[in-house]
Amino acid sequence: MVGSIMGVVHNGYSNGSVGVQNCNGVEEKLDCLRRLIGKGDGDPLRIVSVGAGAWGSVFAALLQDTYGQFRDKIQIRIWRRAGRAVDRATAEHLFEVINSREDVLRRLIRRCAYLKYVEARLGDRTLFADEILKDGFCLNMIDTPLCPLKVVTNLQEAVWDADIVVNGLPSTETREIFEEISKYWKERITVPIIISLSKGIEAALEPVPHIITPTKMINQATRVPMENILYLGGPNIASEIYNKEYANARICGAEKWRKALAKFLRQPHFIVWDNSDLVTHEVMGGLKNVYAIGAGMVAALTNESATSKSVYFAHCTSEMIFITHLLAEEPEKLAGPLLADTYVTLLKGRNAWYGQMLAKGQLRPDMGDSISGKGMIQVYFVMFHVLVSSKLICYVPDS
Q1: Distance (Å, rounded) from C-alpha 388 to C-alpha 383?
Q2: Residue 215: its pLDDT value, please?
Q3: Predicted confidence (pLDDT) per residue in 11-68, tens digit
Q4: Active-site residue flag, 288
Q5: Which of 191, 217, 316, 345 is in Cβ range 3.0-4.6 Å of 175 for a Cys bridge?
Q6: What CA–CA distance (Å, rounded) separates 249 from 273?
Q7: Are 334 and 317 within 8 A, CB to CB?
Q8: Residue 35 β-bridge partners
Q9: In this structure, what are the phi and psi dihedrals at residue 233, rounded to the nearest 5 degrees?
Q10: Active-site residue, selected from the candidate residues 263, 288, 348, 391
Q11: DSSP-derived secondary structure letter, 366
Q12: Closest CA to 343 of 282, 301, 288
């Protein structure tokens, strides 16, 4: 193939909302998106989720559950690195989860996969994260079995011809992995669509101090135009969404694709709205994780004081309004899923747990940056000192 992804008009469509409004059934929604992307008969829509954390795995599983039956029209895969071993304690817990769910147990027996979990529990073999993901188990979310997933461990194989790439990577890994991906896209003629689930920011000093969000990292790494890069976020606890608890989210970005994708992703229990304000939603998606760490600290250090937690939440929302005004001059955009995303993360989630453990002295810098069952933890010790210096909390170390 010849050409470059730079400056290419994707299939001649200037507005992703064209022809979307009348697509209501599951197969109709799939057909609508296929037409917009320009897929012909016999050419499946190829979607790959890059990164297999809790939310990335659940997102891929939701698509597989909804559209996987149409095998001639869509291909859904997930990429994760090979070689991550499952420790003995996790293997034992995984075995307990399997045997507590008759549907999962029967599925594994039908797939002739049950015996390896028995052997892993006994210590007779080692399981690997990519191996169990194929059976529907995310290492970061063992208690919530997913549907079986098509797992690819070779990054080039996963992405080279993908029509839609879902970024399920941490923000700290997004730039590095998409720089690698860009090597496989040098001769692409069509422009892929990228949906980023990542939350976090980078700081840059040149030419003037500014922040770089994950969608911008992807743009810089791949040269895919920003109109083809979107952000999806909302008040989403991954395990609860997969268990069909009612939730909503916003997909943000250029109008070219966001309305079509909102329609495609929407489900009865997972309502997806669309919004043009990419920067505000993405920045707040990162900040709320930091706020959640502070919320966990406040909860632990005040013995779950409702008053203290409400004061802390008021400080957070005031700061969010100020930052939103700087970014978009429209603080009212904090309404709906954006503010709810902050609220649910303060209530429950990995980052609030980190904050609680930090305040209780059960997490320390010498434990490293990866906590078993919880994943990556970075810059959170700095957050503790920020809260103390601001006198929002008072910490007296053990003597």
Answers
A1: 9
A2: 96
A3: 333 333 334 445 669 999 999 999 999 999 999 999 999 999 999 999 999 999 999 9
A4: yes
A5: 217
A6: 6
A7: yes
A8: none
A9: -155, 165
A10: 288
A11: G
A12: 288
Residue ranges of the binding site: 51-56, 199, 238, 350-351
Q: Which element (helix H / strand E) includes 275?
A: strand 270-275
The per-residue pLDDT of the chain, averaged, comes to 84
Positions at the binding site for NAD(+): 51-56, 238, 350
d(CA 165, CA 78): 10
How is residue 376 annotated by DSSP? E
Task: Kindly report, residue by residue over 207-251, the tens digit of the pLDDT.
Answer: 887 788 999 999 999 999 999 999 998 877 899 999 999 988 899
Token code pair at residue 108: 């594994």
What's the CA gap between 114 and 122, in Å, rounded?
Answer: 13
pLDDT (mean) for 83-111: 96
Q: How far apart are CA 351 and CA 301, in angstroms?
A: 16
> Which residues sit in the known binding site for substrate?
199, 350-351
Q: Own/partner pairs for 349-354, CB < 8 Å, 24+ apart?
A: 349/237, 349/292, 350/374, 350/375, 351/289, 351/290, 351/292, 351/293, 351/296, 351/380, 352/292, 352/293, 352/295, 352/296, 352/299, 353/296, 354/293, 354/296, 354/380
Q: Which domains does the chain have, with CATH numbers?
A: 26-82+151-276 (3.40.50.720), 280-390 (1.10.1040.10)
Q: Strand 164-167 to strand 210-212: parallel, antiparallel, or no bridges (unpaired)?
A: unpaired
- Tell me the pTM: 0.81
